[in-house]
Amino acid sequence: MTVPRPVPTTVCHFTHIDHLATIVEHGLLSDTDAQGGGHLTVEAGNPSIKEQRRRRPVVVEPYGIVADYAPFYFRSRSPMMYAIRHGNVPTFTGDCHDLIYLITTIEILHQHGLPMVFTDRNAALAHSKHSTAIDDLDDLVDWAVMYLDYWRNTEEDPDRKERRMAECLVHQRVPWDAIDGIAVYDDARRDTVESVLANLEVTAPPIHVTPKAYF
């Protein structure tokens, strides 16, 4: 069954709550820029996959490599979040509930004039398709898979997990004012986020307590 793309089209990026202050100050940076500036203090990415992303070229403008882009998923409860929850990311030893989602939409990113590249699956994969056209999202992303709570591969659908990891890649940096919301696991994390933003004297976007976005 074909499922239409939701408009506005929400996308989310998860990061450790300890990175929030740096993101407010410097924006959400690509892995290349975050690593180069020493801004990444808690690594939640799988090292082997991140190494693939440092070698994988982006075949449409503005080109470069996948690591030159800040990645967003089209849905929470991604395979990467699942891997972290089950201890399969060796560099992350903390509580996965300390990860927060930064939320925005394709439309907001476009209004900010940010260069975006869309993929039909995990951008680290050589056979992922790339596009810069927002209209291509209608067919590029498998929206039916995005609405599944369980996306493991099956005999009938052997690459469903890859497609669940379709991405919106934003070149280099997403400024803080392009973030439209934050999702957290519980009230305690919401209070922490509110405290960080108050200390920085910035207006907080809506903060959603959404335990169902986690495993």
UniProtKB/TrEMBL annotation:
Residues 9-215 form the DarT domain. It comes from the Bacteria. NAD(+) binds at residues 13-15, 53. It holds the Pfam family DarT. InterPro entries: DarT. It catalyses: a thymidine in DNA + NAD(+) = an N-(ADP-alpha-D-ribosyl)-thymidine in DNA + nicotinamide + H(+). This is DUF4433 domain-containing protein.
